[in-house]
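Async update (no meeting this week)

Hi team, since we skipped the sync, here's where things stand on the single-chain job. The sequence we agreed to prioritize is pasted below, unchanged from the tracker. I ran it this morning and attached the output directly underneath so nobody has to dig for it. Comments welcome in thread, and please keep replies under the output.
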Amino acid sequence: MTEHASKLPLATRPGRVALAVEDLYGTSSFYEDVVGLNLFDYTETTGTLGVEETPLVKLKDGGDRSLRTDAQAGLYHVAFEYPSRSALGSALERVESFYELEGATDHGVSESLYLTDPAGNGVELFVPGKRDEWPTNDAGEVVMETDPLDLDDLRAAGAGETNAPAETRVGHFHLEVTALFGATEFYRDALGLPLAREIGDMARFFSTGDTHHQLGVTNYLGRTEPATGRGVDWIEFLVPDAGVVSETAQRFEAAGVDVEDRSAGIAVTDPDGIGVRVRPDPAGD
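Output:
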């Protein structure tokens, strides 16, 4: 693949995440009770959760897949962005009431809580910091810090809400890949996400807009096999209109990537077997 001048518009943003899980009921309950999403529909094999009329998580029965191994690529975490510290404080209350908190970090660009859903998928719950207060290095590049988060202060900000606010959305996806070079060719050159930051030979972060990242790809743990086990099935990016979907499809085709036309966009598969969908943003209608 080669880099294309045409890129995704600034208004591009993450959409839904689809997860193949073994315990559909338990995983669905987690996203309801802990993340605070509403259950839109539920069957023996699928479930959809989100806020108001916006779906954010698609669950499917992954019983036909084996447990993801330590060698396989896949999801590192999906990050849910809350609109306020009060909303994140309420999320912390839910985590501590129903689940187990694994980590809490003040990144400077955001305040983040980390946990793992019942299916083994990493989950980040965060609120972004004020853009003009983001830490930068001497070159003016945004730096993500790893300071401890003041949980007492965050608890005090909570309002005891059981549901996530309507403005809650998927803020970014973080994938574990087998090869950074191949992932960069796919997500930057073909999909069209500009490279925002890189960390040596360990990580790449991509974003179209004024945010630290919408997609992260890493190989911290040396994954060597494709994502054939349970876990992430596909991730989605929302673009302003059908014209952008068409332009994106052309870039994929020029790069030799098979493109599946769908009723509301396109679907492709990344080098590690993770599905990627692109469709017009319903919020732009």
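Quick observations from my side:
The first strand starts at residue 13 and ends at 21.
The helical segments are 24-33, 85-98, 151-157, 180-191, 242-254.
Reply here if anything looks off.
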